């Protein structure tokens, strides 16, 4: 398999992992984003406890994921409705 060994530093701790070569950029970007969120929470709330900061980041990420899933459901429903409308129009013409 085409894997790379990388070390991702999150909250001042290194995590060695093997990732697909095609996922390396995404994995590194995710690590960077986590660290940025940790820094934002630390600066905003003055919290230094890494466990609390990581919990807040995890919670924030899950909320974002849930919102994205809800938005996708709305988009999917809109697409289905538009396709049904187009099908009805085509059926009327035929």
Walkthrough of the structure:
By secondary structure, this protein is of the alpha+beta class. The chain has one domain. Helices cover 70% and strands 17% of the residues. Helix 1 (24-45) crosses helix 2. It starts with a strand and ends with a helix. The mean pLDDT is 96.
Structural class: alpha+beta
Helix tally? 2
Q: Which regions contain 5 or more consecutive residues with pLDDT less than 50? A: none
Considering DSSP H and I runs of 4 or more, what fraction of the residues is helical? Answer: over 70%
Average of the residue pLDDT scores: 96
Total count of domains: 1
Give the SSE string: EEHH
Describe the secondary structure blueprint for this structure.
Layout: E1 3-10, E2 13-20, H1 24-45, H2 50-93
Antiparallel strand pairs: 1-2
Helix pairs in contact: 1-2
